[in-house]
Specification:
single chain; 158 residues; mainly alpha; yst0336 like fold
């Protein structure tokens, strides 16, 4: 590919980041406002397949508290890339950049968030729901995070 075909368009990047922040905000509000057990929450129609494949490929991944350097090591990136490709045709926007909480006991904040493909977010959050890590979040007080920011304010996520 010719490098001249790729342009760093600030307005596109800002729109993407705004969408990612809105997605994270919606997810957080859903978790906090759920009166039912999060294990019953369905994020996609493919939750069962995503969870089964995720645990088959990553049986020992501790989803309660993720370590960013382990998620993004060369070996891990290769394994995740193979996992992601499995859902290319079945999960919409499977590779859209999505914010993922590193520690399931915390909210979305700059210190507790990393960027992952949407299917990786879904795999981890479906596992957290089913394995009980997202229980009790309704008792957390909302923090002052950048999630409620307007598009021009997302510079705090640099």
């Amino acid at each position: 590919p010719n490098a001249e075909n790729y342009v760093n368009d600030a307005s596109v990047e800002q729109a993407w980041l705004y969408k990612a922040c809105r997605h994270a905000s919606t997810h957080w509000n859903l978790l906090r406002l759920m009166s039912a057990d999060p294990a019953k929450l369905r994020l996609t129609p493919q939750d069962d397949a995503i969870y089964a494949e995720f645990r088959a490929r990553f049986p020992c991944l501790a989803v309660g508290k993720l370590v960013e350097s382990e998620l993004k090591s060369e070996d891990s990136k290769s394994a995740w890339r193979q996992f992601c490709q499995l859902f290319e045709d079945t999960v919409g926007e499977y590779n859209f950049g999505t914010l993922l909480r590193l520690d399931s006991a915390g909210d979305y904040s700059e210190a507790n968030t990393t960027l992952v493909p949407r299917i990786q977010f879904l795999a981890v959050e479906v596992a957290r729901n089913r394995e009980g890590f997202n229980r009790g979040l309704d008792s957390l007080v909302p923090s002052q995070s950048a999630l409620g920011a307007e598009p021009g304010d997302v510079k705090n996520w640099d």
